[in-house]
Amino acid sequence: MHLPLTLLALASSCYTALALDLRGRILWNELCPSLRDLGQSKVVLDNGKLQGGITRNGSFEIPDVSPGVYILSVVSHDYHFDKLRVDVFETESLPEVRPYIPGTPLSPPSPVTLPYPILLTARAKNDYFAPPQSFNLMGMFQSPMMLMMLVMGGMMLAMPYILKSMDPEALQDFNKRQARIGALQSSLQSGDLSGGLSALINPAQEESSASTGTAKQTSSSSGVKQRGGKNRRR
């Protein structure tokens, strides 16, 4: 019974011996001069797997860091810090700190090494204010919808002059078609589908009957002329 407990205590002591308290410090600068300006922030490993708080003088400590490769970052609402690669070894040697660019592979590591304990400084201040866009007249006219509106407005203004220059018969035909389109739209809006269909069918019948009547008149007039010629020959 005592043997498993002894082995467990030995394993925990070995883990504690191999674990490391990772230490570092944030150097205050003109961009971020104090902890009050920094606000509620923390230093994390691998996006929060391990973390440590920041004291008033800028120092931080992440306890019980087991051997491995980690990405160290500072979680801050208002300031941006560089991310670092930290290699913690199983031996008693100090961790190796290297710069890390997000999105790049961990292997091979960067040949550039940084001092330990870790030193960090604020690189930029996050700006969450987006200024409103100013009025741009040329940009407004570059919009396709605005161009379509301008073309339609130009056609409406030019329509009276186009109608004045049209032939009277063509103008009468145009007015009839506009009246048919208006009747069709009103019948469709009122739900009268039969009226809309009749508005579409009747004009076609009228045009066909008109063309038939014109053809008959032409043929009859030509027949009369032919008969008159025959009578004269007789």
TrEMBL record:
Recorded GO CC terms: EMC complex
Assigned keywords, A-Z: Membrane, Signal, Transmembrane, Transmembrane helix
Membrane topology: Single-pass membrane protein
Chain intervals with Polar residues compositional bias: 205-224
Signal sequence interval, chain numbering: 1-19
Domain ER membrane protein complex subunit 7 beta-sandwich residues, every copy: 40-148
Protein name, as recorded: ER membrane protein complex subunit 7 beta-sandwich domain-containing protein
